[in-house]
Structure formats: C-alpha cells, structure tokens
Amino acid sequence: MDRLAVYAGYAWLATYADEGANRHEHRTWQQLVWNAPVPQGWALSLRPRLEQRFAQGGNDTGHRVRVSARGAYAPHPAVMIVAWDEFFYQINNTDWGASSGFDQNRAFLGLGLPTTSTARVEVGYLNVFLKRSPDNHLDHNLAINLFWTH
C-alpha cells in the first residue's frame, strides 16, 4: 500500500473581478493518489478528487470530480520532463452558478529542476480550457510551481 495515499482537506478561494463581482468559495475535498510502478527515471501518478463547493451568494452545495494524471521522466538528475492533465466534471447545478457537466481542463508540459535535495521548481506551459456560458475560454499561461518533498 506504499503506492496509495488518501488525503482530505479544505480550501478557501477568493475571486476578485474587475466588475466588482467578488466571490468567496469554500471547498472540502477528499482524494486518492496512486503512484504506478514504473521503470527507474520515470514517475506516473493518478489522482481522483471529490470536492464539495460552498459559494457566497448561494445555498446549494456543488459537487465536482477532478481527475489528474501526471507523468515525469528524469533523463538526468538535474532535470525532468513533466506532463500532466486535469479534467473537471461538475456533478450538479447550483443556485450560485455552477452547471452540471464538463467544467474545465488543465494541461501542463514543462521542465522540473531540483533546487535543493527536498525542493524543485517546475516551469512550463499551462493550457486552461474553461467551459463557460455564453463563451468558452482558452487561456495560455506560463506556470511556475514550487514543490517541497520529504
């Protein structure tokens, strides 16, 4: 069972819009992380997550599933190639605006660089597709992520 981990948590998200439609959202979540057995130099993991979302201005609880797959290859100890994709699916409609069905997708491709023996930075391209009414959004981002390990 050293390849499987169970987590639960809480997140508070504040969205500040230029138009003044600021929103605060609270989330509780549960997730599994499974690390696949792979050859030396490779890493592959799968993470399904279930979220309960509570938003300002509404009484409904939004339920959403997020599934992430991540792969990495380290051809050299000083660099790794990283790719991941995360799919979001909203289970129900809410009175605060969440609509059931496909919600968004995030895809990343970049490089991981160790900064110390317990930390690394990952830099790369993050593509975010948001399904929103009346128009969908496709965002192209430079992502810089810092990870600490133990």
Written overview of the protein:
The chain is globular. It is 0% helix and 71% strand. Strands 1-2-3-4-5-6-7-8 form an eight-stranded antiparallel β-sheet, with no helix packed on it. The protein is mostly beta strands and 150 residues long.
Defining key terms:
single chain, 150 residues, mainly beta, eight-stranded antiparallel β-sheet, 8 strands, 0% helix, 71% strand
Main structural class: mainly beta
Give the low-pLDDT segments.
none
Question: What general outline do the C-alpha atoms trace?
Answer: globular
Mean pLDDT: 93
User: In percent terms, what proportion of residues is strand?
Assistant: over 45%
Can you count the beta strands? 8
Distance between the termini: 18 Å
Rg from alpha-carbon coordinates: 17 Å
Figure out the total of helices: 0
Helix coverage percent? under 10%
- The string of secondary-structure elements, in order, is EEEEEEEE
Instruction: Please outline the major beta sheet.
Output: 8 strands, antiparallel
